[in-house]
């Protein structure tokens, strides 16, 4: 990805607790939001109407085609069913986490040498995968938003191998109400995973940087 | 806009426990057997002080040894007359719906029709490997098993086919429930699909609100009511379950609860992969915008009344106890909840009946 992508339309795959919270926040931040679950959009019409007013339920194929960025907010064990062809050329933000004590063992994600988003990127070889939003609770994503520059604004880490895709997600994070912290490539994204120092923790940018071992001044 | 629902349900003030192991005066954990005998005492006291429902959550670990909650409920049933008894929750996905029905129908018989079941995942997962189930099958297991459980509740011969247990053909499952189906709830933590499933199956909705602002669950109650409407089903009760601890004063409740809470969460965070809460996070949770009900009877009652009103829920279920508290602190908690919190919640709800959207019916003052 070379050009500067300005995100205006977001496709959220998954209308569960994570997907619906993300979609709500995205709508309030001024984006056009398309939501898709597995199958017929009619199945999520009521959820969208009550929980995500303003979101447009779509078939996944249509939502992806119309979007500037695609949010993966599906249960991790359903990831193997996602067709990489549909996502080719798209910025894909991976909100999923792998934590086998809770999710059960997923053989696809059992490679100790790779972070879960690296595995996602390998499978979605033609997409630009960015890891972010995975380490904050879905309800905190809504309650902890603060305007830029305000005291106590929380930080979200962003990892990705494609600079333009990362920049687009940085913009998204900032507009949602968080300080965006670039932490490096997808390999570095492993530090955002369950069991890591920032998972489930609410941290300002300096505290976040300290927690992951970066110099606060860096 | 939809017509505001006029359906209301009686206020139900409930308590439940996960069977958290209690400690003696010297800070040593009591045996599993003693913890279980103490829970029988606690349930009996809850009945005596006017608590409406007593629940036990199925767990399978050293610090929560209540793997056979229904047996304990049977003992409480035999010693009580009035209190309703049930699970909180039954991990249906790793159990056999036929056996769950049989056990709770038996409890219903012993108690003279006081049994209830809350089905759900709970937050622990130990029962899956223990009984040979794969956690990644969770959704299929829960979907199929709730469907079968709904069939079993109807009474009469059951015919059922699925992939998670042997098929049934015109099978009579005993003991028959005495007076029709006993109340069945689905415990929901945050999944909109689970809310819709509860409506689809005709089960009551129990919201497990264990962190953050309770008000953020309000859209879930709207979703549940709308789903029931669209399905042409009657409205059903909505409950909320949250943890807490009641003592004589706010300071005493906090002093007793915080160190135990920190210890338990520290332990749990290792298996769940999240970070350990700070004192500031705890203070946020016990305040008006959090989900812990820790304090004096007046503090806890005010918070319960506010949140029942905010959610339009008719049932509040206090998850009492926290590993390491003493049996006597828990007995005091139960006594204060029954004698002070419950009457105060009734008073507060009568003083400020939430005119619109109230789904709680209070008895007329005598």
Question: In which range does the helix fraction of chain A lie?
Answer: 25-40%
- The residue-averaged pLDDT of chain A reads 94
Annotated CATH architecture of chain B:
Alpha-Beta Barrel
Question: What Rg of chain B do the Cα atoms give?
Answer: 20 Å
Shape of chain A: globular
Low-confidence stretches of chain B: 1-6
Number of helices of chain A: 9
User: Greatest interface and its residue counts?
Assistant: A-B, 34 and 32 residues
What does the model show?
The complex is a heterodimer of chains A (218) and B (366). In chain A, helix 4 (84-87) links the parallel strand 4 and strand 5. Chain A is 32% helix and 17% strand. The model of chain A has no long low-confidence stretch (mean pLDDT 94). Chain A has helices at 17-28, 45-51, 60-66, 84-87, 100-103, 116-123, 138-143, 163-176, 205-211; strands at 9-13, 32-36, 56-57, 69-72, 91-94, 128-131, 155-160, 179-184. Chain A has a single domain (9-211), classed as NAD(P)-binding Rossmann-like Domain (Rossmann fold, 3-Layer(aba) Sandwich). Chain A contains 9 helices and 8 strands. Chain A has 218 residues and is an alpha/beta fold. An 8-stranded mixed β-sheet of chain A has the order 3-2-1-4-5-6-7-8, sandwiched between helices. Chain B has 366 residues and is α/β, with parallel strands linked by helices. Chain B has one domain (9-361): Alpha-Beta Barrel (TIM Barrel), CATH 3.20.20. Chain B is 43% helix and 16% strand. In chain B, the strands form 3 sheets. Chain B has an 8-stranded parallel barrel, surrounded by 7 helices. In chain B, helix 3 links the parallel strand 5 and strand 6. The two termini of chain B are 37 Å apart. Chain A binds chain B through residues 15-17, 20, 46-47, 49-51, 75, 77, 97, 99, 101-106, 137-140, 142-143, 193-195, 197-202, and chain B through 125, 128, 134-139, 189-193, 196, 211-213, 216, 219-220, 222-223, 226-227, 230, 269, 271-275, 281.
């Amino acid at each position: 990805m070379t050009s500067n992508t300005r995100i205006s339309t977001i496709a959220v795959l998954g209308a569960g607790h994570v997907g619906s919270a993300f979609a709500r926040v995205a709508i309030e931040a001024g984006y056009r939001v398309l939501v898709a679950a597995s199958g017929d959009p009619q199945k999520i019409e009521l959820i969208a109407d009550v929980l995500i007013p303003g979101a447009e339920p779509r078939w996944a194929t249509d939502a992806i085609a119309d979007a500037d960025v695609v949010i993966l907010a599906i249960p991790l064990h359903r990831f193997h069913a996602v067709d990489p062809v549909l996502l080719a050329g798209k910025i894909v933000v991976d909100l999923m986490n792998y934590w086998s004590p809770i999710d059960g063992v997923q053989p696809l994600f059992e490679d100790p040498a790779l972070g879960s988003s690296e595995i996602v990127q390998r499978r979605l070889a033609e997409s630009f995968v960015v890891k972010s939003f995975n380490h904050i609770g879905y309800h905190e994503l809504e309650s902890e938003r603060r305007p830029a520059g305000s005291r106590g604004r929380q930080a979200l880490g962003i990892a990705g191998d494609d600079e333009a895709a990362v920049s687009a997600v940085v913009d998204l994070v900032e507009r949602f109400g968080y300080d965006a912290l670039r932490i490096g490539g997808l390999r570095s994204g492993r530090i955002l995973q369950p069991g890591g120092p920032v998972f489930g923790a609410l941290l300002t940018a300096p505290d976040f940087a300290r927690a992951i071992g970066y110099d606060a001044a860096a | 806009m939809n017509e505001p629902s006029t359906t209301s349900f009686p206020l139900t003030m409930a308590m439940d426990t996960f069977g958290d192991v209690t400690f003696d005066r010297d800070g040593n954990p009591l045996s599993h057997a003693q913890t279980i005998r103490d829970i029988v005492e606690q349930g009996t006291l809850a009945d005596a002080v006017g608590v409406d429902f007593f629940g036990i959550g199925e767990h399978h670990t050293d610090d929560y040894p209540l793997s056979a909650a229904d047996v304990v409920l049977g003992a409480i049933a035999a010693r009580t007359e009035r209190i309703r008894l049930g699970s909180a929750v039954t991990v249906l996905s790793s159990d056999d719906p036929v056996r769950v029905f049989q056990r709770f129908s038996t409890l219903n018989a012993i108690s003279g029709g006081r049994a209830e079941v809350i089905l759900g995942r709970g937050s622990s997962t130990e029962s899956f490997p223990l009984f040979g189930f794969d956690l990644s099958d969770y959704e299929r297991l829960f979907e199929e098993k709730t469907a079968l459980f709904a069939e079993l509740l109807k009474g009469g011969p059951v015919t059922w086919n699925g992939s998670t247990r042997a098929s049934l053909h015109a099978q009579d499952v005993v003991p028959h429930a005495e007076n029709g189906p006993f109340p069945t709830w689905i415990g929901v933590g945050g999944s909109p699909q689970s809310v819709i499933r509860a409506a689809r199956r005709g089960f009551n909705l129990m919201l497990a609100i264990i962190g953050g602002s309770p008000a953020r669950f309000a859209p879930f109650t709207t979703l549940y009511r709308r789903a029931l409407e669209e399905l042409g089903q009657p409205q059903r009760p909505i409950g909320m379950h949250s943890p807490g601890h009641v003592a004589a004063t706010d300071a005493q409740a906090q002093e007793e609860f915080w160190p135990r809470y920190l210890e338990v969460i520290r332990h749990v965070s290792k298996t769940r992969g999240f970070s350990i809460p700070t004192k500031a996070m705890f203070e946020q949770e016990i305040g008006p915008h959090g989900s812990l009900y820790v304090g004096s009877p007046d503090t806890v009652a005010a918070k319960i009344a506010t949140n029942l009103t905010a959610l339009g829920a008719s049932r509040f279920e206090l998850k009492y106890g926290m590993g390491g508290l003493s049996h006597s602190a828990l007995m005091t908690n139960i006594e204060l909840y029954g004698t002070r919190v419950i009457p105060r919640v009734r008073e507060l709800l009568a003083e400020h009946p939430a005119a619109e959207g109230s789904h709680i019916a209070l008895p007329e003052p005598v």
